[in-house]
Each structure stands twice: as structure tokens, then as C-alpha cells.
Amino acid sequence: MRVLVLGGGITGLKTAFTLSEFDIETIIVEKSSEIGGKVKRYDKIFPDFRSGKNLVKNLIASARNSPNITVLENSTVTNVAKNNRSYTASLSDGKIIEVDAIILTCGFEVFDATRQPEYGYSVYPNVITSMELESFLNPEGPTKGKLLRPSDGKVAKRIAIIFCVGSRNMKIGNPYCSRICCSYSTKQAIEIKENDEEAMVTCFYMDIRTYGRGFEEMYQYAQEIGVKYIRGRVSECSVLPDGNIQVRAENTLLGKPVQGVFDLVSLSVGMMPCVDAEELAGIFGIERGKDGFFLSKDDDLFPHDTSKEGVFLAGSITGLKPIRDCFLDAMSVSGRVVSYLTDLYKNR
Amino acid sequence: MRVLVLGGGITGLKTAFTLSEFDIETIIVEKSSEIGGKVKRYDKIFPDFRSGKNLVKNLIASARNSPNITVLENSTVTNVAKNNRSYTASLSDGKIIEVDAIILTCGFEVFDATRQPEYGYSVYPNVITSMELESFLNPEGPTKGKLLRPSDGKVAKRIAIIFCVGSRNMKIGNPYCSRICCSYSTKQAIEIKENDEEAMVTCFYMDIRTYGRGFEEMYQYAQEIGVKYIRGRVSECSVLPDGNIQVRAENTLLGKPVQGVFDLVSLSVGMMPCVDAEELAGIFGIERGKDGFFLSKDDDLFPHDTSKEGVFLAGSITGLKPIRDCFLDAMSVSGRVVSYLTDLYKNR
């Protein structure tokens, strides 16, 4: 029994590892040069501030050490054909593999902040994205964990975090909530305050969606240590001669416009379907929802099945998920696929 | 291989059914007189308004028809002892069963609205809870789907829904978010408007946490059909001589106090750990978190394992979950337990 797992992020790795516990062989096909996905860039993850990088390191080691798992990097699926009950997949490097089932764990893409030009990203150096803030906060990152602003290398003391960039916005065509931005931004705000007591962090938000277990408590802790939350959609960022950024918003709690000047502004970008979503949907002949993410056969009852027998979905390919939900999805899809393969071999 | 599943709600039923697909025998022990849990009381569930009752009906039928599943109703576990690698459980009816693993799926309890006396629940007849509203909205319920107010049987036209009752409230000792109240309340608001175009529905909220796939779109639809959302914590409900309810709140978006008079007020109650959580924790020797819900060995990596080998957790016992997450948890714990049992039998 052999399964193709497309995508070597945390969901793909955990899925392959779980399947290996059932003595099922998997081939992980990863388009980039290295498995581990986006989480390896996170020094700390929410809500418990454990190391995302270590989490991934361990997953990578498990995958590399398992005799049941083959990792093919720099590789994509270019074509797939069904033969009776198995699939033949052609890979970009010319390899052809035969598998009994396919699990797509292709994840997501980060919203391109230049699509909301009112925030000045890529124009004003001191407007950065949350992904860049994450690397600034990393002790092993380019600034060794210091918040040095790009324009002049000075330590940023007044930081604004703007939530919902690229999410819940009809105008840019992303009406959906990206689910994790409120929580990862709150985590970042806490890190800034814990690294530098004098730093002032102001979060501009719409609704605080810290809904998961431990997320709300993290949000309460952020408020306790002095992170300021202002409810309001930011209308504009503009640059002052000294490189500072002026943020204008309407404080919808006080019902009046507010503005503030900050050394550094971080845009908490939301999530988009993976860049090759359309292509993949075509290759595998499966459907995507209005939001661009992939559709399962039934969100409640068959969350991993697609309209194609033997092709399954897991992780953020069906919409953004926090890391712990990706792990859960990986374990759940593994069970589903084991049961599918058992049926398949019984009927042969 | 035999597994005890404690709890016959949707998580327990789905877990037993998934295990049966792996040819594993399960015994469901349910304390009430009927399996199916709370979801059988929901005529429609969010975000797609499918029938919760049918969902449960099908699950119950699957459990009853599976030769691998035994259902014991009106039964609880009174004692449990570990013998080498198996468990002996004593049940309240005197039965003694031997099993290889135990899965606790004991769910949650609804917050008791009388604990927030400022809302007048159980004092003013026209203040009801969201569970009662659910039964009013059910075409097969006591009012045949009509919103007749308890005091005089008149059709309610002005309805207030108060979110976060028993949630995110330090004073009553529930600092956590109950996760599903924003979404189920929005679903109820839509049902009211769709049943009666003239009905006016006003929701008092803190943050709208419609974070799941399709949840945000449901919230947008509610606004489109005229459901009104006012951001503010309600301070008090009081009754007028005609039975109408006056609601006082601070509209935190406009920064001023608001009040309104409504025919009927529904309190969107949050969730608590199951009533016998303390007792169960004692019997099984496992831990609970500060929030009272059960603790898994590791939220990310071992979400189903407890500190006791062979005892697993699934569903809302570790914190509230929407129905689709309960199903996912059920599938995921099943995979975990199959892998555990395989190991167990290998090593014997």
C-alpha cells in the first residue's frame, strides 16, 4: 500500500508519519527545495509560545528516519491518471509513480500586502508584514531578535499592528476570516512587550477572534502587560519626514477618528489559497469553493474526501487552520485513508 | 480488541462507528436514557442549516446496526482498574467489562443563566435561553416553529439576542470563549428573519467570532437580511408591566449607553465542562485545566492522549468544539487508538 502526499509542510509531514505507524508507505512530493513548510520560519507559536522551528525539525527528522517515507523535493505532480483503483502520477522530474491513494496537503499562501496600497507596504520601509515581524522577533533572525526599523536601524519603540489585512474585505475579494491572524498578532504583541518593557504596542482590530482553547487567555494576558487594542479599520498609513508612520483609523468604540504616529507598522496579512490551487484543481479534477480553497465532499461528514475516489484533502488546503488543527487534520485523514486502503485491498 | 467509549453524543457515536470500520469492538456507555447527545435537539445547525436531528438519527442508526458496537444506556462508570495492559471498568448497573482502551467523550454542559441574575432569567418569563429559543424555532417543537412568547403566547416581533452569557467573564469564573455561541446565535437570528420577515432581531455582542469556514459568510448574510448587531455588554434586563423586556447596554461602537424594548430576549449561553467532570477526573486519575475542561498530554502533538496510558479524550471534553470539529476529533482519536491497539497487540 502506497500513498502520495502532495506537500511537505506540517500537515503533510504529520500525515506521512501517522501513516507510517500503520506500516503504509508514503511518498512526499514537495515543490520547494526543503520540506517543513512555513512553520519552520516561526520561532514561537501560539498560544503556548513553544518553538515552531523545533516542532518542524522533529517532524522532518521523523520523516527522514522512517523507512516508510520517501521525500522528493523540488518536485511537483504534472499529471495524474486513474487505472482501475490505483493512480499513476507523473512528476516534474520525469519520475512516474504508482500509488493507491493521494492526499493533497498543499497549504496556503500569504496575502500580498501591496494589494492594499493604502497601507504603503513596499513604499514606506517602516511598514512591514507580520511575516517580516516574525523574522525580526527571531533571536536567530537577521536582527537577532531586535526590532530595528528598516529605514534607519533604530530600535522601534512605538509599534502598530494592523489586523485583518487581506481578510474580511469584500473590496479585495476576500470576504472570509483568515482565522489565525488575531491570535498570531497577539502572540507577536506579547513577544515585543516581553522583549522590551518600554515598547508600546497598539493593535488595530475589527473583532478579536481568539476563539481556541488558551487563545482568549493569551489575549487577556496581552492586555494585562499593556498591549493596547483599538477597534477600528485603518484607512491609511502615511510617512513623515523622519520615517515615522502616521496611522489613521476610525475608533469604532469611541465613534471618532483617531490617528497615531509609530516607529514601525506591521500588517497582519491574511491567507489565500496556495498559488497553484487552480492548476492542482485541474490536474486532479476536483472542486474549489467560492473562497478559492478546496472543497471536500462534505464539511461535516467527509471532510477529507473529494469528488474523486482515492483523492483526499488535509490541512489548510480547505481553509486556514491553526497548527494544532493541522495536526488533528493529519491524524484524521490518516485514519480515513487507512480505512479506505483496507477496503480497497479487501475488494481486490 | 475492545474499546470503551464513555459518552453517546455525536463524538462518541462517530468514534465508535469509525472504530467499527477497523473491525474494533466498542462499548458505548451513556449516562442518559438515550444516545445522541445535545445535537438531537437542534433542528438546524450552522453554517449550512442542515438538520442536526437527522445527522444524529443517522449516527444512532449506524451505531445500532453495527455488530461491533454495543450501546449501554442509563449507565456510568463507577470504578476503573488497570491490569497490566487492559482496563476493568465497573458500571453503575453492576456490569463489569474488560477493555483495551478507554475514550472519554463526555462533552459539555450548558451555562446556567440564573448565575447572571442581571438578565432576569427564570424571573421574567420572556427572557429565555438559546437552548429554549432553539426549541421554539423547531417546526416539530412545542410552538411548531413559531416564536410565541411565554408570558402571553403572542408572536414575538422584536427579539434581542445577548451573546457571551457565561463566557469571557472573569467575575463568574469563566474567562474563556465558548467558541460556538456567536455562530449558533447568528444562525438563530437568520432563522427568525427567514421565518418572519417583519421580525426585528438585535444582537448584543462583544466580538463576532465567526471564524470557521463559511461562518463569516453566514454572518455577512445575517447583516444583509437585516439582523442588527450592537457591540456592547448588556448591563441589565428589566421587565415592563406588559411583559416586555427593557435591555440596557453600552454601545461601545458609539460610546454611549443604549436601551431598547423587546418582546423576547434570548440569552446565548456559553459552555461549561460536563457536570461530572470532577468525578470522572477522579475515577480515571487524569487532569483538568484551569478552565475545568480535561487536559490532553499535549494540545498540539498528542491531543487525545492523557497522562494515563490507554485513556484517550475526544470532542468537547477538552473545550468546546463546533459539530464538524467534533467529527474530526472522533476520526482523529480513532486513528490514534487503532495505532495504540496495534502496538499493544504486537508487544503482547
Give a brief rundown of this model.
The first copy, chain A, is of the alpha/beta class and 348 residues long. Chain A has helices at residues 10-21, 52-65, 130-136, 181-195, 215-224, 277-284, 323-346; strands spanning 2-6, 25-29, 69-72, 77-83, 86-91, 96-99, 101-104, 108-110, 127-129, 158-165, 200-205, 228-231, 234-239, 245-251, 256-262, 264-269, 271-273, 311-313. In chain A, β13 and β14 (245-251) form a beta hairpin.
Descriptors for this entry?
5-stranded parallel beta sheet, FAD/NAD(P)-binding domain, 348 residues, homodimer, 7 helices, alpha/beta
Question: How would the blueprint of this fold be written?
Answer:
Two copies of one chain form a homodimer.
Chain A: E1 2-6, H1 10-21, E2 25-29, H2 52-65, E3 69-72, E4 77-83, E5 86-91, E6 96-99, E7 101-104, E8 108-110, E9 127-129, H3 130-136, E10 158-165, H4 181-195, E11 200-205, H5 215-224, E12 228-231, E13 234-239, E14 245-251, E15 256-262, E16 264-269, E17 271-273, H6 277-284, E18 311-313, H7 323-346
Parallel strand pairs in A: 1-2, 1-7, 2-3, 7-18, 9-16, 10-11, 10-16, 11-12
Antiparallel strand pairs in A: 4-5, 5-6, 8-17, 13-14, 14-15
Helix pairs in contact in A: 1-2, 1-7, 4-5
DSSP helix count of chain A?
7
Strand neighbour order, sheet with most strands of chain A: 3-2-1-7-18
Helix amount of chain A: 25-40%
**Number of DSSP-assigned strands of chain A:** 18
Rounded to the nearest angstrom, the distance between the terminal CA atoms of chain A is: 12 Å
The chain pair with the largest interface is: A-B, 51 and 52 residues
Beta-strand portion of chain A reads 25-35%
